[in-house]
Amino acid sequence: MSELTADKNNKKYGVLLVNLGTPEEPTSQGVKRFLSEFLHDKRVVDMTRWLWCPILHGVILPIRAPKVAKLYQSVWMEEGSPLMVYSQRQQQQLAEQLDVPVELGMTYGSPSISSGLESLKQQGCQRVLVLPLYPQYSRTTTAAVFDKVAKVLKSQAEIPELRFVNDYFDHPDYISALADSATSFWQEHGQPDYLLCSYHGIPKRFADNGDPYPEHCNGTTDKLATALDMPREKMSMSYQSIFGREEWLTPYTEGTIEALAKKGVQRLDVMCPAFSVDCLETLEEIAEGCKETFIKAGGKEFNLIPCLNDNPAHIKLMANLVQQHSQGWA
After folding, report:
1. What are phi and psi of 156, to 5 degrees?
2. 235-204-288 Cα angle (round to 5)
3. Which of 17, 36, 98, 307 is the most exposed place for a label (fewest CB within 10 A)?
4. Is the pLDDT of residue 325 over 70?
5. In whole angstroms, what is the distance from residue 308 CA to residue 285 CA?
C-alpha cells in the first residue's frame, strides 16, 4: 500500500445522529421558539411565505404554544424532554459500542446540526456519516436534515467527506428490533386482540408529488407482520399528528382506533415505528389521547408499546447501519 493510500484510509470518521428536536423547556415561550423554527421550514410547510408567516405568528403560535406547553408538561421527565433524554442515551451508547466519535444534532432547536458537525471537526473527523433517525424517508424529515447539513457546510472553506443514510425502513435488524419489542411486551402483558402501527402523517399532496414515505410505511408494516407471524386481519397501519385543513395520508389514527373499538376490539396495542424515541406524539397523543378515544368508543384495554428508544437491539441496529455505510473508512 502506498503512503498516499494509507493516509487516505487513515482519515478519522465520526457519526452525526440527527432527530427532529424538542423545546428546551415545557413553557409557552419554549414551545413557541421551537415551533417557530420547525414551522418555518419549507420542507414542512411549503405555503407562500407572505401568506404563511402572518398566519403562523399571528394565529397559530399564540394559540397553540400554551396548549402544547401543557401537553409537554404532562410527559416531561426529570432529566428533560423525553425525545432529548432518549436521544442522548442513544448517542452515548452508540459511541461506546463503536468506539468512534458520535455527536447529536437536532434539525430544530438545540443541540443543532451545526454544533454537532463542529464538534466532530474539533475531534479531527475528516469524514462524517449522517444518520437521521427516521426509518422511513420523507421530504419533511430526512430531506430536511440534508438541507440543514448542506446549509451549515455551504459557508465552510473545507468540508468533510460525507455519507448520508436515507432510510432503513426494511432493514432486517430494524424489523427484528420492532418484532422483539412487541414480543417482549406481549410476554409480560399478554396478547392483544389487534395491533395498530401508527406512523406520523404527511400531507397527501407530498406523496402525490413523489415522496416515498407511504410506500416505506407499508413496507415496514408488511415485514413486521411477517416477522410477528401476525394475521393481517388482526393488524393494520394508520397516520397520526394531522395538522391543518388539507388532506393528509389516510387512514387517520384516531378514526381508526374509534372504528376498531366499535367493531368489538376489546384490547388494542399500538406501535409507532416511525419514531425512534418516545416523545410528545407517542406519550401524549397516543398513550393518553388515543386511549381516551378507544375507551369512549367501547374498548376495554389500550396499550402503547414503547418505541425502541435505547433498547440494546436498537443500538445494535444503529451500529450495524454505521458499519455498513462506513465501509472503506475504518
Report:
1. -90, 140
2. 50
3. 36
4. yes
5. 17
